[in-house]
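Objective 1b: paired records.
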Amino acid sequence: STEHERWQPQPTCRLRVHIRMSARVIVVRLSPGFDDAAISAMIRHTNELHGLVLSLYGTGNGPTHKESFISLIKEAVSRGILVVATSQCRKGSVALNMYEV
């Protein structure tokens, strides 16, 4: 077996291609100490943003005690922007409170 087969499960159904997806989604790769201003500008200065994917650091944790960041996420959601958190790691899951940053 190849390396790919060891970590990638076999498909359980036929491939379905989705053609009606929004391209108005932005992916932001966070690093410790990032500045909220860039995310704030993206959220506040466009009416066309449909989704925000936050690629959180390490184990999928983020700045849970950074009130300005939390407020920014709440603002995005209130504007109808779908916010998704993901890990930068190839394997594993998101653990928002793993490490307090």
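Objective 1b, second protein:
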Amino acid sequence: LKMARLARLKKELAMLQAQPPPGIIAWPHEDNLSVFRAQVTGPDDSPFQAVTFDLELTIGAKYPFEPPK
């Protein structure tokens, strides 16, 4: 990973771990900061209440100029 991209990913990971958005947790896959695993829990009072979605996000080489896939 390029140094600037790596530094940004580490910073964003620290933010996710310190103050995760409600119902969302994310972590890098093993030691690879280009692949993240995430779990999103459906909001209360919705058809998705108590449903957990498992996601895998791939951070491309052009991040942050292109979104993860």
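The CA atoms of residues 27 and 37 lie 5 Å apart. The mean pLDDT is 91.
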